[in-house]
Amino acid sequence: MAFGSTPDFDVVVIGAGAAGLSTAAFSAGLGLKVALIERGAMGGDCLNYGCVPSKAMLAAAHAAASARNAHRFGIRLPAPEIDWAALRAHIRGTIAHIAPTDSEARFRAMGVEVIRASAHFAAPDVIEAAGRRITFRRCVIAAGSQAIVPDIPGLGPVPWLTNETIFDLEEPPGHLIILGGGPIGLEMAQAHARLGCLVTVIEAGRIAGRDDPELADGLRRALTADGVALLEGAKLSRVEPDPAEDGTPGLVAVLEDGRRIGGTHLLLAVGRAPRLAGLDLTAGQVAHSKAGITTDAGLRSTTNRRVFAVGDIADPVGIGPRAFTHVASQHAGILARAMLFRLPAKVDYAALPRVTYTDPELAQIGMTEEEARAAGHDIRILRFPVPETDRAVTEGVRHGLVKLVATKSGRLLGAGILAPHAGEMAGTFALMIGRKMKLSALAGLVLPYPTLAEAAKRAAGDFYAPKLMSPFVKRLVGLLKRLP
């Protein structure tokens, strides 16, 4: 763009997922001229292939499990019948219900020019899309991430799936083999097992490897009770095609120790990689690595000050990428302050919550015990079993734990929760950690009775119990009782 000339757009956003849509909306709302470029489905991965369809499937699976377990409460029901076509319609309907919020029509009504095409840099201040050369003042790259397809010998002729294709299956998998025991793998494992499929998870390390081992252990027992076969510490050597007698595709997963697991479908859930291909970041003078676009803590490119990156594709120096929809929303807020208002704003994941939406859910907010010790903190660990709360007793909750990580002075550093709807409790801990609050705030909180959240309050109260029951306090109470 020539010096002094007016660019075509104030802000060009590449990618119409959670981060890109938020960025386009607030930029247009502030009166800027905005272009939103998307080559695929509006709403991105979360709406179409991730958060929304997976939670819709999990809800159906939970209903099936509730019907099977109703006898525990004196309710006799027949075994649930899974109507796969109706289940798929439920998932599609859920997406369709939310889709208008992310639609092209809605953003055009905001004044955003929506361009349905691939985009790439032609120069540091020029994007090419749909045969046009588009100049900009600011460009926000929000192209997201995609499932990693590992280099597995024999994978080519085998029917493999990712989160982008698993919801398209017209028939339920007979035996779903899942490679990877992280959040996506475990959610899909439990969902399909509860919907009547055989499921085997192959994990090279341990399941829920980023989460606290104590909490992961409770989840392991819950998944096993649902019929999920968990092969941990198992490395996949190769896969082989193994069609059924009627010609239906199938496979055999061969492990390094020689074990052979036969299945009908293979789901790859070993992680995600940023969508960098095709952007021609070199032409844009945008630094990047395999982890994503290199930015400062304010999400600005370290090599092209016109360019910002948000969401899964952003790799802030010294902080690293985080592939969560709620992080994309956090990034959009940072961008509004840093890019538009030129205010200081930095990425901070100290209070970041993450949730695996199994049943029970596994939530982690802030540091795990291992992370806190590695960071050099002198810590106290506080635990309370969720099944010991009165609400859990009434509902027959069998697995669950609240584990708090605090400093010796009582400031909360991290919280792990294994419980039904643990994600609904996560916000309280995120607030406490973000505001550097002490456990006294939680211990003194008046909660409605009965709730599972009492486990958190009881865990926090245990921090103060030794002081309240100390010999000094007992002597003090003995003296005070003599007063009229």
Could you describe the 3D structure shown?
The chain is α/β, with parallel strands linked by helices and 484 residues long. The protein has three domains: 9-42 and 103-147 and 273-340, FAD/NAD(P)-binding domain (3-Layer(bba) Sandwich); 160-270, FAD/NAD(P)-binding domain, CATH 3.50.50.60; 353-468, Enolase-like, domain 1 (2-Layer Sandwich). It has 14 helices and 25 strands. Strands 1, 2, 3, 4, 5, 6 and 19 form a seven-stranded mixed β-sheet that branches. The termini are far apart. The model has no long low-confidence stretch (mean pLDDT 94).
> For the CA atoms, what is the radius of gyration?
25 Å
User: Which CATH class of the largest domain is shown?
Assistant: Alpha Beta
Annotation field: number of helices? 14
Q: Summarize the biggest pleated sheet.
A: 7 strands, mixed
List the helices and strands and how they pair.
Elements: E1 9-14, H1 18-29, E2 34-37, H2 44-48, H3 51-68, H4 84-98, H5 104-109, E3 113-115, E4 119-123, E5 126-129, E6 132-141, E7 145-147, E8 160-161, E9 175-179, H6 183-194, E10 198-203, H7 213-225, E11 229-232, E12 236-241, E13 251-255, E14 260-263, E15 265-268, E16 272-274, E17 288-289, E18 292-295, E19 307-309, E20 314-316, H8 325-340, E21 353-356, E22 361-366, H9 369-374, E23 379-385, H10 390-395, E24 401-407, E25 412-419, H11 422-434, H12 439-443, H13 454-468, H14 471-480
Helix pairs in contact: 1-8, 3-4, 3-6
Cofactor: FAD
Keywords: Disulfide bond, FAD, Flavoprotein, NAD, NADP, Nucleotide-binding, Oxidoreductase, Pyruvate, Redox-active center
Organism: Falsiroseomonas stagni DSM 19981
